[in-house]
Amino acid sequence: MSVARVTEISSTSPESFEHAIQQGIARAAKTLRQVKSAWIKEQRVEVQAGRITAYQVNLLVTFVLEDAP
Asked: How many CB atoms neighbour CB 32 within 10 A?
């Protein structure tokens, strides 16, 4: 049996939503062990002078909790 936890993170990229997702997952995997999945909760863009300047995603990241040694 395994028990998982879900944590929410936010990631921003000047390139695309896809890049923001990849950066968010890569960063989460540096701190959290056994990352198993992620859901995109929200997407938004920042706009300046009528142009998109940043893409932001809020991710719900699922990781499996480890047993104490």
From this structure: 16
Segment holding 26, helix H or strand E = helix 17-31
CA-based R_g, the chain, Å:
14
Structure letter (DSSP) for residue 50: T
Domain count, the chain: 1
The CATH number given to whatever domain includes residue 36 is 3.30.1660.10
Proportion of the chain above pLDDT 70, given as a percent: 100
Give the type of residue at 3. Answer: V
pTM of this structure: 0.86
Strands 4-13 and 51-64, sheet pairing: antiparallel
| 17 Cβ neighbours under 8 A, 6+ residues apart | 43, 55, 57
